[in-house]
Every structure is written in structure tokens, then in C-alpha cells.
Amino acid sequence: MSNDERLMGWVQFPRLRMGEGERSATWLELFYDLVFVVAVAELAHVLEGDVSITGVLGFVVLFVPVWWAWIGSTFYATRFDTDDLGHRLLTIVEIFAVVAFAVEIHAGLGATSGGFALGYAAVRAILVGKYLGAHWNVPEARPLTRRYMLGFGADATLWFLSAFVPTPYRFGLWIIGLLVSFGTPLTAGQLHSEIPPHRSHLPERFGLFTIVVLGESVVSLVGGAVEQTWTIRSFLVGGFSLAIIFCLWWGYFEDLDGSEIRAAAEAGRTGVYQGWLYAHLPLVIGLTAVGISIERVLLASPGSSIPTTSRWLLCGALATCLFALGAIRYTAGARVDRSFTVSWTGRIGAGGVALLLGAVGGNLSPVVLCGVLVVVCIAPILLDFHEQYVYRSHEVES
Fold this sequence. Notes:
Layout: H1 3-10, H2 27-49, H3 53-80, H4 85-103, H5 113-137, H6 142-162, H7 169-186, H8 191-194, H9 201-225, H10 232-253, H11 259-267, H12 270-278, H13 280-299, H14 308-335, H15 341-360, H16 366-397
């Protein structure tokens, strides 16, 4: 290969990737996700330090812009990424910004909220710069890139300005910025069908992020386990907790096949994939909270009842995950013109039972509560098997 050919390989212009065959995440994308592991870990520490209602709300408020920052880069990459020198350099700068706001998360609603805002604004501004390159080089995508530059640019500007505004007005600008930013793709209409995300690359990226968050749950479980004096009861609590995490993994990855993207591209049903997309926000918030709640349950006395805050955190976080998995399963039915009524309502029902246990399980020991929650998590999986069996039986008969 000549030097000119090597140079051309390193200098490429953004191009549409939606029509390409199977794509996998690049090594740079995997590194980018690894940086977000740090941000998610910091968010988990925030929740670990305060599991009151105020603490949980603060944790959610900080989680939303972190998740949305990851979403922005992921959707750009799935449509336009070339992994050339320019894209890599921009992404490295973006990674510095992600690290910067991750450092500020520990007091992101207090003393370091200004620094957190500047870090987020920098991530969004870099994203706007990426879309500007796509706007120049991909004329057929300009209706979409123009919309994204304006909406995400407004978001970045409001967050930047908020750093110089005192609290609580600073948080008002955050809310306005996020509303504009969330509304930008939500109101894009048929542009999602005309320029859809890549059908194999995007689900893989979401799956990788979900794995990252599930990994944090396992880290929290191990963190609680190493401080335990091991008995049969504590062993059962740890085993049941790991089973809960495994059930959540099963419930999510059973549906990860990219059909939502195909539904948007082929049938024009953008609501299907948008529902799938936004259901991931409560899912990853719930998964992170499940990890912290499991750690607190493991640290509780195995023979006595669980503290109220820890019980509610575990049951509420698990219910949030199950509700989100129900919504994702619902999109699975919509994308293939099947109802999947039993399985998605089973997930919603299991989430309701988890909430009920949070309300009435005050006298339950960690062993009993975690054991019952395992049964609650297994039930939707069994319903999936039943529904698949009935559907296949009907196919054979017809």
C-alpha cells in the first residue's frame, strides 16, 4: 500500500452508514463506553451516599444528562461514523469532556454543579461539530443534521450559560436544555424512516451499555459480599441477588435483535423504535439502583428485617427495570405485528408485585425478600416460554 493510499484511509468524510451490511462496534466505541463506566460508577456512588427520596431524585436528575450524552454520540456514530483520524481526534476530545463531568458528578447538584454543566455542554458542543461535518458532506441527510445542530446546539448553549447562573436558576436552564434536546429527535417525524440508524450496529451499542450497567450491579454485589461474615443465610441472599441480576439480563437480551430499527425504516413506524429507545433510560437507571440496593441488603443482618429505605430501593428499582422491560417487550410485539400480550403484561405485573413487596414486606428478612423477588423475576421468563410455545403450536397447526 502506498503512502497516499494510507493517507486516504486516515482522511475520510462522514457518509451514511444505514445501508451497509452487518456492523460491529469499533475499538474506539468500546473505549468510549469504558469511559462511561466511570460516569455510571460515580452515579452509583451518589446514590449509595443518600438513598432517601431526595437522594434518589438527585441521582435520577444527574443520570439523565449522562445517559443522553452517551445517546448523542451513539446515534451520530451509527449513522455517520468513519473511524478516521478526524473522528478519532474529536472523540478523544469528547472523552476528555466526559471525564471532566464524571469528576464533578459527586456533588453535581451542589458545589460542583457548574463544572458538571460545563462538561456536559462541551460534550454536546463536540457533537454539534460532528453533525456540522456530516451536514457538509452528506447532502441527503441535511434535513436531519440541520435539526440536530439547532436543537443540540441550543442544549449546549443553555448548559454552558447555566454554569454562570446561581442555583436554583441553573437547574431551570438544565431542564429547558434537556427538554429542547429530547424534543429534537422526538419531533423529527419521518426523518427517522428516511435516515434510520443502522439496524445491527445500534442494538449492539445499546446492549453494550446495558452490559456496562449490569456489570456495575455485579461490582456492587461483590462489594457487599466481601464485607459479609458468611453463613447459610448470607450465602442465600448473595445467590438470590445474583439470580435477580441474571433474570434482568435474560429479560433484556432475549429481545435484542434490531427489529425496532427495521420497523422504523421499512414500515415507517418510528414510534416503535422511539419507544424502544426511551424505555432504556428507566431501565439503566433501575439497573444501577438495583446494584446499590443489593449491596445494602447484603450488608443488612440476614436474620432481621431489611431497613425501610433499603427495601424500598430494592423493590422500587427492580419494579422500574421490569416496567421498562415490559415497554421494550411491547415494542417487540409492535414491530412484528404480534401482541405479545402475555409476556409484556407479565413484566408489568411482576413490577407491580415488586412494588407491593416494598409496601408490605417490612417484616421480611433479606433471605425471604430476595427469594420472593427471584420468583417474581423468573415468572415473566416462564411466561415468555409459554407464549412462544403457544405461538409455535399455532404456526404448526396452520
